[in-house]
Each structure stands twice: as C-alpha cells, then as structure tokens.
Design goal:
Helix content: 10-25%
Number of strands: 36
Number of domains: 2
Bound molecules: zinc ion
Largest sheet: 6 strands, parallel
Strand content: 35-45%
Length: 499
C-alpha cells in the first residue's frame, strides 16, 4: 500500500488540471465576492473499503451528501456498502477497475477499465452514472477522448486534502478542509490505506461547518436531483479589431465591472457603477468602443458606452426584460438589443447611429435569455432556449426576420454564440449534465454534433472570436471562479482559470 501511495503522490504532482474546473489556483482579481458560504462537493476515492461505513456514518449524521469514486475490483466484496452509499443519497462514480494510470493503457484497455467498473456498480446499485475520476488525476487528450466516447465525463478536484500522504493527520486534513469555499470540489479517500484520520477529520470539520455550507453530490453524477440551476454570474466577452479583449460582469451586489486587455496592458477590473439584476452583455463596433447593457432594478434595459476612453452616463432604454439583455453591433454606429419580454417572446430595439428605435416584438416562447450574433447590417442570428429545453434560433437576413427553428440539445442556462463572419457560427451551452457543450454551423456542413462536454458551469457561457483563428469561451465554474477555454485554430486549450 505504501507503493500505491507513492505512485499516487508522484502523479498528483504532475496533475493535469486542464480538462476540468478543478485546479488549485489563487482566486483571480474578480469583482465577485466569495464571502457567502455556498455549495461544497465532498468526494471520496479508492473505496469501497472497511472505512467507507464510518465515512457514511459521519456524512449522514450531518446530512451531508458526497460523491464516491469507487475502484471496480473492490466493489464485488462490498455490495452492501455500495447499497448503503446509494441509499443515503450519495453519488457513486467510476475510479477505474484497478486504479490504473490510464495514460499507460491502450484505448481498448481504458474502455475495459471503465465499462467493467460500470458493470459492477450497476450490479450493486442498479445503474452507473456518467462521472469518472482518472486515478492520480492522470489524463491526456487521448484518454479524454476515450472517456468521452463512452459518454462519460472526467471530474478532478479543486482542493486536495492530501489525506493519502503517509504524514497526513486529523489536523492536516482539517486545515485543508478549511480552504473550502462555494463550489470547492474536495478530494479525500475512503480507501487505499488507513483512512481513520480522514474519518475523524471529516467529523471534526463538519461539526464546525455543516451549517455554513450545503454539501451536495457533484452535478450530473447521479445520486439524487438533477443539475441545479445556475446561481453564478456570467461574463460577457468582446473582441477588438487588434485582438483586444473586454470582459464585463457584475458582483453579487449588482455593480457592473469591466476589464480590458490591449497593447496597453491589462486594466484590471474597473467599476462602471450601476446595479444590474442579471448578467450584463457588451459589444463593440470598432476602436475602443464598448456598448454595455444591463437589466436595472426597474426591469428595464440600461445602456452605457465607452468611446475614445470616455464613458457615457447610464441611460434607460425602457422595456421590461426577463433575465439578461444581449447587445450586438452590426456596423459602425449600429447596435441591436434583444431581450426576453414578460410574455416570454423576443423583443428588439436598435440604435441607428442617431437615435433608438423599437421595441419590436419577434415572437417565440423562450425560457432563458437570448444571445445574438451579427454578420453585418440586416444579418442576425438570435439563439435561445425553447420551452422544450432545446436550442432554438431565429434570424434576420436581408432585413427580414424568419420564424423560429429548433436546433436541439438540452440547455440548463442561456446559450452563448460567436461568429467569425458570414458562414460560421459557434454556439456554447450548459448541458443537462452541467458541462460545457459546443456546436457550430457552417455553410458546407450545417450543424455539427455537440462536442466538448467538459467542466461544471455555474453560469451561462459567452464566446468571442478574436481574429480569424482564436475562439474564447468564458464562464463561471462551480468553484466561483471565472474559467476560460480557447480554440487556437488546431485544438481546444482548457478550461483554465482566467489569469
Ligand atoms: Zn485514487
């Protein structure tokens, strides 16, 4: 077992944090307060073992739910323990058959490790969920693709209690548990060695913190309930003509913040004041121009713009928005705003360079906020979640609006769309499993199948093309941090925490 632990230690040092919302990073300079307690995801690896029942006793005493990543070859001898995990409302997930470093195995052997474990989980408790954790956190693109090919999803962690180290003690585990905050995914072990210090540490820590946090199973990993609605604040991204990037978000009090990267450097987060009661959105039609829209405390849409380094005052555009407004520039001086109205229809209002027009009713029955892209004057796509939970689209071409068309998928937040010009649009959504999913349309192929399926989102995603080859997606993770994922023209990078 000592050897098991030392291999685990080595691999932990080379942990690839790239694929998931799980890394040990400093909180970025975010305007969003992390003060409030929230949801914490306790996870236990390497069971079931003789210690699992003690872990369950502690969790159940405090009403805390957790996710257990089990080793397949240990399941058969402890079927009763497996049922006890499931009966208490915890989630059971896959930690491979023999705790293998999947990077060293063939594709077929990786599939065997996972499907055989799913088989014994299903035998013990009736069904196996889609979540897995690669032993040692060891994963690469090939392993990731094999996992995705099975319809499964890797989950890493954001806090390692190091309870697997030979030197671990109750005190050392408690001190690392004290780093928990809203969205933390905490790695502990109910097997793999003597874990009595883990049991005692969880007991001691929950005694002090059970009232501060909610302890839930990982979203989309089974064990009760569906994916919770998003409670995090999204981030709107806007690209400038020379690769500049503006991000706009708000804090928990609603104050709007902007941050800009350009040849002049990184401005850091700067307050725009105001109070937004939904995610803000922004667009640009060139230079340092930035148009920002928010939903005010009165439910109306409010607008503020930057040009030549100066900001206009906040001004009301009227209307009654349910959720976030979206704004898109189609030409220099021309911006269009779209909102979901009180009747769940889509409404639009536009600035023609001189004055505001609208509101105009565009119909539809949408269930979250819309997102819009423009290919030029009179050319728009608007995406929204329909009443069936799928992605829908309406569009304007040649100045005329068309009806709504169903694209498909299962959305649990507003979509985020981006275009790099006529003939190509990329759409990102938070799926039914809480992960980031992507599809795209181009003139040659139509809609592509959904891909990615990574991470755990606690906001709607927003995407932006920067130049011809770079596509960036921004989103809030369940850990409360802002995450970014980048297409560099060849492959996907991330998700990673916004630096
Ligand atoms: Zn393990």
């Amino acid at each position: 077992m000592a050897q098991h632990r030392s291999v685990r230690a080595l691999a932990a040092m080379s942990l690839l944090a790239g694929l998931l919302f799980a890394t040990i990073s400093e909180q970025p300079a975010s305007p969003v307060s992390a003060q409030s307690a929230g949801v914490v995801y306790l996870t236990f690896d390497d069971g079931p073992s003789a210690y699992t029942s003690s872990v369950l006793d502690v969790l159940n005493r405090y009403g805390a739910k957790a996710t257990f990543f089990v080793i397949g070859q240990q399941v058969g001898a402890r079927a009763a323990t497996m049922r006890a995990i499931a009966d208490s409302g915890h989630a059971i997930a896959n930690h491979t058959w023999s705790h293998a470093d999947l990077r060293t195995l063939s594709d077929e052997a990786i599939r065997d490790q996972l499907t055989s474990t799913n088989g014994v989980i299903a035998s013990a408790v009736g069904s196996a969920g889609p979540c897995m954790r690669p032993p040692y956190g060891a994963i690469n693109d090939r392993v990731s693709n094999v996992i995705a090919g099975l319809g499964m999803r890797p989950i890493l962690w954001s806090i390692d209690t190091l309870d697997w180290e030979d030197s671990a003690s109750v005190g050392s585990v408690v001190s690392r548990l004290n780093n928990a905050r809203d969205g933390s995914i905490i790695l502990m072990h109910d097997g793999g060695g003597n874990q009595s210090h883990t049991v005692a540490a969880v007991d001691q820590w929950l005694a002090a913190n059970a009232g501060r946090f909610e302890f839930r199973v990982l979203p989309g990993c089974g064990g009760g309930g569906g994916v919770p609605p998003v409670t995090g604040i999204g981030v709107s991204a806007v690209a400038g003509p020379a690769g500049e990037l503006d991000l706009v978000t708000r804090d928990s009090a609603g104050t709007v913040f902007v941050r800009r990267w350009s040849s002049g450097g990184d401005t850091g987060w700067a307050s725009l004041g105001g109070i937004s009661t939904a995610d803000p959105d922004a667009t640009s039609w060139g230079g340092d121009r930035l148009d920002v829209v928010v939903r005010g405390t009165d439910g109306a849409v409010w607008h503020r713009a930057r040009e030549n380094g100066g900001w206009s005052e906040w001004s009301s555009l009227g209307g009654q928005a349910v959720g976030s407004p979206t704004i898109v520039a189609s030409a220099p001086g021309r911006v269009d705003v779209f909102v979901r109205g009180l009747d769940n229809a889509l409404y639009t209002k536009w600035w023609d360079g001189t004055q505001w027009h609208g509101w105009a009713w565009l119909g539809g029955g949408i269930t979250f906020s819309p997102d819009a892209v423009s290919y030029g004057p009179g050319e728009f796509d608007v995406y929204a979640r329909g009443q069936d939970g799928a992605l829908w689209q309406t569009w304007q071409s040649g100045g005329a609006w068309h009806g709504w068309a169903r694209i498909g998928g299962a959305l649990t937040a507003s979509p985020g769309a981006a275009t790099r010009g006529q003939g190509r649009v990329d759409v990102f959504v938070r799926g039914g499993d809480g992960a980031l999913w992507h599809s795209a349309w181009d003139t040659s192929a139509g809609w592509y199948p959904w891909d990615l399926g990574v991470g755990l989102l606690n906001s709607a995603p927003d995407a932006v093309w920067r130049g011809t080859n770079w596509l960036d997606v921004f989103m809030r993770g369940v850990d409360g941090q802002i995450w970014q994922m980048t297409w560099d023209g060849v492959s996907w990078i991330g998700p990673y925490v916004l630096a």
